Amino acid sequence: MNLTLKIWRQKSANDKGKMVDYKVAGISEHMSFLEMMDVLNEQLINSGEEPVSFDHDCREGICGSCSMFINGEAHGPVKGTTTCQLHMRSFNDGDTIYIEPFRAKAFPVIKDLVVNRSSFDRIQHSGGFISVNTSGNTQDANATPIPKHDADLAMDAAACIGCGACVATCKNSSAMLFVGAKVSQYALLPQGQVEAKERAQNMVAQMDAEGFGNCTNTGACEVECPKGISLSNIARMNREFLSGAIK
Amino acid sequence: MASKKQGLSSIGRKAIMALTGFFLMFFLLQHLSINMISIVDGDLFNEVSHFMGTNPLVQFVLQPVLIFSVIFHFAWGMYLEYQNNQAREVKYAMYKGSANASWMSRNMIVSGLAVLAFLALHFYDFWIPEINVKYVQGDMSGMLPGADEFRYYEELVHKFAGQPIRVALYVISFVMLSLHLLHGFQSAFQSVGYNSTKYTPLIKKLGNIFAIAVPAGFVLVALVHFFNH
Ligand code: HEM
Ligand code: SF4
Ligand code: FES
Fold first, then answer.
1. pTM for the model
2. Which of A1, B30, B195, B216 could be A93's S-S partner, Cβ–Cβ 3.0 to 4.6 Å?
3. Cα of A31 to nearest chain B Cα, Å
């Protein structure tokens, strides 16, 4: 298929940046979206132009690095997928495709489609550690009984890959789904209880300091999240935070 | 552990939006109940209105909470909207908001501002005359001998009878309120941290019923007086 691509080009963090049109031809419907980008970049390199920078690593939907805002949606039109898992069969011959970086004040553009998501790392760091005995005579994992229901919910929350699609898609650039998942994965387990109160307070304080917006419960994040992280994690964080704040 | 918190956190701000929203919804229900009486019995409506206008508990506890809630709710709503706008400096060239969130949830500021404009009209219609009677004419009881005992009912009827433009504005405003509550009712539960697989579906259903029935009730009262007098 032949496509027209409208891609955000920005030389550096300080450059103003603009949308630029490109044409690609002979794209197979079996290609992944990133392979289509590879074709474009080869074309650009052959004609002596600067290739489009974009983040990618695993190309199997687990690292969360392939941030692209495609045709107005994070990771493109297919739900529950990352950009690397999106295939060209989701598009039609002759389509015009908008490709933009994930946009938020807390995700500054480094170059083209590459954004700096280290604000997420700082939020995780502010959550700190959990108290477990690692002195050599480590307890058997099964010695601490955990209800299956709680273990499942904690695992679901831990499935978050930190991709930032929730922020990119949110009309408020809110990071509540990500932070909700990171608070929940510990809040649900007995090992996470010792620091539970400080964890929620500190992670929320860091989230606010990074300049993410305020959640208005539109639910867009849950729909666009490639890992199906549930809004109930945000409610759990609100509970953890509010009950901690009045303790 | 030292807190990095400066001022109210984003979650604290949201909780206040939700709590003031809850109070406003409670107020709507109470207001509607009294308005409904006006369809059935003008005298009873006057009595109840008089009670609400003079009862110290209503005047000095509920009314200040209401005023605080209204002001806080819309002032913070606008401030949050401003902050949220600042959180994305460069906008998308292409953004499909409708692909993943309802119109209502994305336009709370639009429906909210429409309700605010209505409140201004409402103050002009009912509250300013009331203050005039109480504080300018000095009739604190609202019922001095010689004052018209039926003024509440007459005021109400007078505002709607033969006033198609006001009735139309009224209807539009309540459609906007309905849109506000279609998202707001269930959203407020999520904001204060309540989300359960068991009851959240029920809350969403109740929210839809509330968001349609309550504004429809207000509209009904206006239409009855418009067509009956
Ligand atoms: C009787 C009138 C009103 C009622 C019953 C009401 C109710 C609510 C409720 C229940 C919410 C959800 C709160 C949450 O998600 O936690 C809400 C949100 C909101 N309201 Fe109102 N509201 C009213 C008037 C207004 C007015 C006059 C404005 C003026 C701008 C306004 C602006 C907003 C905004 C911007 C939000 C979204 C904020 C957020 O979710 O953080 N509302 N409202
Ligand atoms: S919550 Fe979902 S969308 Fe947000 S960072 Fe985690 S995996 Fe990505
Ligand atoms: S490249 Fe790893 S998730 Fe897409």
1. 0.92
2. A1
3. 23
A7 and A104 share one domain: yes
Q: Enumerate domains of chain B plus CATH numbers.
A: 2-228 (1.20.1300)
Looking up tokens 């300080």 gives A14
How many domains are there within chain A?
Answer: 2
Full residue range of the structural domain in which residue A227 is found? 117-245
ipTM for this prediction: 0.91
Query: For residue A190, how far is the Cα from the chain centroid?
Result: 27
Tell me, what CATH number does A155's domain have?
1.10.1060.10
Nearest to A231 among B83, B94, B190 (CB): B190
Q: Does one domain contain both A172 and A221?
A: yes
Q: Which of A84, A110, A136 is the last residue of a domain?
A: A110
Residue owning tokens 């007086």: B225
The string of DSSP letters for A14-66 reads TS--EEEEEEE----TTSBHHHHHHHHHHHHHHTTPPPPP---S-SSSSS---
How far is it, in rounded angstroms, from Cα B144 to Cα A98? Answer: 71
pLDDT in tens, chain A (247 residues): 999 999 999 999 999 999 999 999 999 999 999 999 999 999 999 999 999 999 999 999 999 999 999 999 999 999 999 999 999 999 999 999 999 999 999 999 999 999 999 999 999 999 988 887 778 777 787 888 999 999 999 999 999 999 999 999 999 999 999 999 999 999 999 888 888 889 999 999 999 999 999 999 999 999 999 999 999 999 999 999 999 888 7
B149 lines ligand 1 (CB under 6 A): no
**Using the beta-carbon criterion (under 8 Å), do B187 and A245 form an inter-chain contact?**
no
